[in-house]
Specification:
- This protein is an alpha/beta fold.
- It is built from 16 helices and 25 strands.
- Among the domains are: 79-143, Oligo-1,6-glucosidase, domain 2; 272-446, Glycosidases (TIM Barrel, Alpha-Beta Barrel), CATH 3.20.20; 451-526, Golgi alpha-mannosidase II (Immunoglobulin-like), CATH 2.60.40.
- The protein has a 7-stranded parallel beta sheet. A 6-stranded antiparallel beta sheet has the order 18-19-20-25-22-23. It has a 3-stranded antiparallel beta sheet with strand order 6-8-7, covered by helices on one side.
- Strand 15 (325-330) and strand 16 form a beta hairpin.
- Helix 8 (241-253) runs antiparallel to helix 9 (257-267) and helix 14 packs parallel to helix 16.
- It is globular and about 75 Å long.
- The mean pLDDT is 96.
- It binds alpha-D-glucopyranose.
- Residues 30-31, 33, 70, 137, 173-174, 215, 282-283 line the site of alpha-D-glucopyranose.
Length: 527
């Protein structure tokens, strides 16, 4: 890792989130999200000394390290689980274990499933313990019992231990699930907020430089409460999950109305709500769209969702440029999520496979447009490693029995260093994407309108395929436009008078009528 830091610095990265690297069981560990020891680096990955050395090197380069804190569960091979299996009451009490099915059955009545296909049900029978254990995620991930205060105290100890090693950002994994109560859906309960609030207070006292990033993959209306209030804050930042989902939905439908609405919701939130914007991460894309808004726009939520996951599955689906896979298809609810890398979902893989250069070129344009739209939004931008060189899906996970059932491994392939070299070679996909992103990142650093205090709002373009964000800083003004369609489109941004200049093309434009080429993005500064 340390040997590769120049590659990160070349991208001027300031934040690095490494996937879980703490001690985990092998081979089944849910990508490291089943933790066996919260204070030890997995020996297959490295040592604690190496982690400390890495955090020091990163800090010299102005990069903050982010690690996951898996609060909701431990691996069933964690010391506590092992001792619980041996019948030690002290440790059984740290999980939610039941002798009969009575309570588990009551829970199942109201508790939805997270992995209905890959890990159905919310309880697992443990033969050694003769108990049913609550396992919201995989059967080998035992949910912790936060009703027992020892659990919270111990977990705080683990977090501070990692902070002492130089970890500056904690991604609190699966936060909404940490508190369970019979008769509820066991998500987003008020006690969850008390726990996050306590965590924030403790960090502020002990290591105030540390940042909490919440992983709250929930409906838009559930998100703002995770920031707490200005007086009683909880998370410093959250994943902009809904923005991400709406970006992909707009790409498939060529319709940005839902995306615009989502942005309007974000812009109406208090200033303490700070989102991490991203296109892809290690997880699937779950199609949690705002149903009320869909209905207002006369979009059928179920049909819309089915269209989206089939579209991104690609294959023979009509007019799809994407190559991806379904994730956790639930035949009962007809719910499914989507997997794939940005490049594959945007058409580069299909074009490459069919040897069609025009398709590849359009795929690149689509990728860059998606990044440009994402970077125009309010918040912090996170890039998924590999996206900067247009890494495509990797189907090798199917050959490995440990990963074959989990299609998220489609976009979790090892980083391709040989392809990264091609970023220096004009004419390659890697060169085009790398340089396209670099240009956007430079403008983002230079322009005041991208600064922290910028005023941000959406703008009506009179064309549902063209998305617009207006940013202002004092008298400066910048209009970010993105055409989500493969056809040329005209945008009409009335009431914006005067002359603007497109930072990318240098063209002089009037905003009341702007021509946009297929998948073109423009960032226009007012002259
Ligand atoms: C989070 C992680 C995901 C993992 C789950 C269970 O959602 O992002 O990868 O499977 O938590 O820990």
């Amino acid at each position: 890792m340390i040997e590769h830091l120049d590659y990160l610095s070349e991208q001027k990265i300031t934040y690095l989130h490494l996937m879980p690297l703490l001690k985990m069981p092998h081979p089944y560990n849910d990508g490291g999200y089943a933790v066996e020891d919260f204070k030890q680096v997995d020996p297959e990955i490295g040592t604690n000394e190496e982690l400390e050395k890495l955090t020091k090197e990163l800090r010299k380069r102005g990069i903050s390290l982010c690690l996951d804190v898996v609060m909701n569960h431990t691996a069933d091979t964690h010391e506590w689980a092992m001792r619980a299996k041996r019948g030690e009451q002290e440790y059984m009490d740290r999980y939610q274990c039941y002798e009969t099915r009575e309570i588990p059955d009551q829970f199942e009545k109201t508790m939805p499933q997270v992995f209905p296909e890959t890990a159905p049900g919310n309880f697992t029978w443990c033969e050694e313990m003769h108990r049913h254990v609550l396992t919201t995620f995989y059967p080998y991930q035992w949910d912790l019992n936060y009703h027992n205060p020892k659990v919270f105290n111990e977990m705080i100890g683990n977090i501070l231990y990692l902070a002492n090693m130089g970890v500056e950002v904690f991604r609190i994994d699966a936060v909404p699930y940490i508190w369970k109560e019979l008769g509820t859906n066991c998500r987003n309960l008020p006690q969850v907020h008390s726990i996050v609030r306590m965590l924030r207070m403790i960090l502020e006292m002990v290591c105030p430089g540390v940042i909490l990033k919440g992983e709250v993959v929930m409906e838009p209306k559930e998100l703002p409460v995770y920031f707490g209030t200005e007086q009683e804050p909880e998370c410093h930042m959250l994943y902009g999950v809904s923005s991400m989902v709406n970006l992909w939905a707009a790409l498939a439908t060529r319709d940005t109305r839902m995306l615009k609405h989502q942005m309007d919701v974000i812009h109406s939130l208090p200033k303490n709500c700070y989102f991490v914007n991203y296109l892809r991460c290690h997880d699937d894309i779950g199609w949690g769209l705002d149903e009320e808004q869909e209905k207002k726009l006369e979009i059928d939520p179920i049909q819309h969702k089915e269209y989206l996951y089939h579209f991104f599955e690609g294959g023979t689906y009509p007019y799809s440029f994407a190559r991806g896979e379904l994730y956790n298809y639930d035949p009962v609810t007809k719910d499914a999520r989507s997997c794939g890398t940005t490049a594959s979902l945007c058409g580069i893989e299909k074009g490459g496979f069919e040897g069609d250069l025009e398709q590849v070129k359009q795929g690149i344009q689509r990728v860059l447009m998606m990044h440009a739209a994402c970077m125009s939004m309010e918040g912090f931008v996170m890039l998924s490693s590999g996206d900067e060189i247009g890494q495509v899906n990797d189907y090798n996970y199917k050959k490995n029995p440990d990963t074959a059932a989990d299609s998220r491994y489609l976009h979790r392939s090892p980083f391709q260093w040989e392809n990264a070299e091609k970023r220096k070679k004009p004419g390659t996909v890697q060169y085009a994407i790398w340089n396209g992103l670099k240009q956007m990142e430079e403008f983002r650093r230079e322009e005041n309108c991208f600064g922290e205090t910028a005023g941000i709002s959406t703008w009506d373009t009179g064309n549902s395929s063209v998305f617009a964000i207006r940013r202002t800083a004092g008298r400066e003004e910048l209009i970010c436009l993105a055409n989500f369609s493969e056809y040329g489109q005209n945008a009409w941004l009335n009431c914006l008078e005067g002359e603007y200049e497109d930072l990318f093309t240098g063209e002089k434009l009037e905003m009341n009528s702007v021509w946009m080429n297929p998948y073109q993005y423009r960032w226009c500064v007012k002259k």
